[in-house]
Amino acid sequence: MKTLDFTHASNSDQDGVYYRLYQPNDGYITVVTLQYFDECDYHDHKFVKNSDGERYWFEDEDDAIAQLNEWYEQDQIDPEFRRSKLLIR
Question: What is the chain's percent helix, strand, coil content, to nearest 5?
């Protein structure tokens, strides 16, 4: 799993679409689609972070959805992204 650091990224890295896990006010954890300039539209404290405080990011939406479903219970996940545990293994 990668963490994104735009302080050392090339322009091509910054222009790409990536995905993060996010917990908005409704309480369900969801997958958000971003480009580097979208980050300011979100509250930093609502992104799912690792033990070092770095926000997880994914190059592929399917990978983000799979991790979301592996790490959280179905009742914690945005209904749009809920997957059966049997389907993601």
Answer: 45, 20, 35
